[in-house]
Amino acid sequence: MFLLLASTASPAPHNPDTDWFKDAGYGVFVHWLWDVQNVGGRANTRGKPPVSLDEWVNGFDTEKFADQMKEAGAGYVMFTMMQRTRYICAPNETYEKLTGYKRGEATSHRDLVEDLYRSLHKRGIPLMLYWTGDGPRQDKQAATGLGGWPGHITDTYARNWSNVVAEYSKRYGDKVRGWWVDGCYGHTGYNEKYWGILATGLKAGNPHAIIALNNPSMTRANSSTDYDDFTTGEVNSFGDIPDDRWRDGKQFHVLSFLGPDWGHPGSKYKLEQLTDYVSQVMEVGGVVTIDMCLYRDGSVDPAQIKLLSQLRPAIQMALQVQPNRVPVPPGNLACWKPVWLLTLDGKGGLPSNGGAGGFHGARSGVDGDTNTWAQAGDQYAWTYEVDLKQPQQISRVVITFGKSYATHFQVQLTGNHEKWQTVADVDHHDGSKKMLSFDPVTARYVRVCARKPDGPNQPGGQMQVVELEVYQ
């Protein structure tokens, strides 16, 4: 059994080990979990009844999967080893001794990770793994064997769980290029000490492996812990575009799902939307991971594969065109700039509204297309914010609303994202296109804050921004 008595991992800002990740541009994430592909009745089971752990793992065709990842243009693959339950898709003596489970009961005889590496490596696709910080907390025997999970991380649990992943890290070495680690939440007791212990286990066999420990705010793709080499970036929709390659000193990375939810088939994005977003992130050195629907046999949703097979060629073309694009209309400073759907106070992110026949992400309000619109989900009163990328002299804002509009809204500006100046306060609005002029203000960020309606059965509706235009 491996013994990790102290943390030896150290934070690495601007880590050059992320260079290959940046060069990959985008990759694919897949959920391969006991309660997704084997039990629970989800579409990922393909209607097949539950089977034993070994039967489930042995049925995964790594060659078929790798072929589809090549077709999808995946620059890397993030593959889940486990989550919450006791089941792990590879043998591990440390885990078996701690929990008392025999091989085949909680760990498979087949090393699916090793086989997956071989199939992906033949096609030039790097492998990354999904791990968790809270381990098999839902299984009483496994959790007790690791030291007990009384609703939060303990010193014994953290060290034992780090020893488990250290065995995998030492076995795979540089075959695994990185780890995306879920469940490292502050509200469960994780802190610098425990993040450090876990990071030591993750890098035990490959100090150049890049890691991200997820303690998310679910808004922008900020780094979660000081031990991260790249930002975890877990969000419910794509939209965040970085200023450059680094955020908080970490490689900018964002992760979200292609379908209507994690691991589901289909796509809420059109090729043009996905191309526009991913190409802009890649242009400044960021990385995008796209979650896809994986079935029990190792195949991926054919419709999603077809979409992604067109993505990399489309991105290459877009990157050639983007530097020469003319804003729509000409002179519009907001066109194609980074935008966010936020709570009314601007402190939290909101998901995109997926109703009315399509996905209404933040980018749809600055794309120069009057057939699309941006609309937040969950809250009536919300804020739409655009980053002009640099301070500009602004004297005019034009807002085109959709069928659902704010009856009371404000336009606010700031140069430093701290002190906001309200340059327009419009009440009793009828939803028509609004042109607002004011004395010139130097600002980088522009907000449209929808204050009314703030609930149902009111005039207007939850604000739809067809286009936000900003002019000098």
Mind explaining what this structure looks like?
Helix content is 24%, strand content 22%. A hairpin with a 6-residue loop joins strand 12 and strand 13 (421-426). It folds into 2 domains: 16-323, TIM Barrel (Alpha-Beta Barrel); 339-471, Galactose-binding domain-like (Jelly Rolls, Sandwich), CATH 2.60.120. By secondary structure, the chain is an alpha/beta fold. Helix 4 (62-71) crosses helix 6 and helix 5 (93-99) runs antiparallel to helix 8 (155-172). The protein has helices at residues 19-24, 34-38, 53-58, 62-71, 93-99, 112-122, 140-146, 155-172, 192-202, 271-283, 302-309, 311-321, and strands spanning 26-30, 77-80, 127-132, 176-182, 210-213, 246-247, 250-251, 253-257, 287-292, 339-343, 382-401, 408-414, 421-426, 434-452, 465-471. The protein contains 12 helices and 15 strands.
Protein structure class: alpha/beta
Question: Which CATH architecture of the largest domain would you pick?
Answer: Alpha-Beta Barrel
- Strand order, sheet with most strands: 5-4-3-2-1-9-8
Number of DSSP helical runs: 12
Describe the biggest sheet? 7 strands, parallel
The whole-angstrom Rg is 24 Å
Name the beta content range: 15-25%
CATH class of the largest domain: Alpha Beta
The 3D shape can be described as elongated
Query: CATH superfamily assignment of the largest domain?
Result: Glycosidases
CATH-defined topology of the largest domain: TIM Barrel
Percent in helix: 10-25%
SSE ordering: HEHHHEHHEHHEHEEEEHEHHEEEEEE
**Uncertain runs:** 1-7
